[in-house]
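Why does residue order matter? Because the sequence determines the fold. Keep that principle in mind as you read this record.
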Amino acid sequence: MARYTGPKCRYCRAEKTKLFLKGERCHTGKCPLAKKSTGLPGKDPRARSKKPTDYGLQLREKQKLKRMYCMLEKQFKLTFNEASRTPGKTGENLIMLLERRLDNVVFRLHFANSRNQAAQLVNHGHILVNDKRVGIPSYRLKPGDVVSVGLHGQKMLIIKENLKEYTKNGLAPWLSLDPDSMKGTFLAVPRRADVAETKDINEQLVVELYSR
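Structure:
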């Protein structure tokens, strides 16, 4: 499957906000966005920026959300279509569906330091759901599902190092974790207001973009 392999910080600079694509580094002064006051990547920072159009604003919100969850356009559009068929507000449904992805939950349980790394762990067969191996990062979890690290994965130093962040940063309220057994539970589908990472994203603009 096609995937972006270039510098991830370029995405953050393009969207002018932290997308948390490189884990703990995004929370420190090592983040290029925190050190640079430059404009868009590839452009002279002194160049005059044009006033964005309505379409441009809608596109930027969609790109921010899509890149934050490390998804390609086709996969993101399919998720949006499902959100639009679900009763309730389409924008809120979209974020709830994204939060239920297995790679996202693996990241939030601190088994991985980024969603990209979480997807890699899932693809390589290190993650179990209800004691069954699942190799699909987009697998959608239900409340009560137990996510754990397989026996081989429990020996991996990178996962042990990632779990140290649990004591520093805590855990999302809709999850529970036993770091010693490397096992967590997806307790409930989060409410829109609970997802702090997306607080600056206006999901209604994404709905308007796809409704054109």
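The mean pLDDT is 86.
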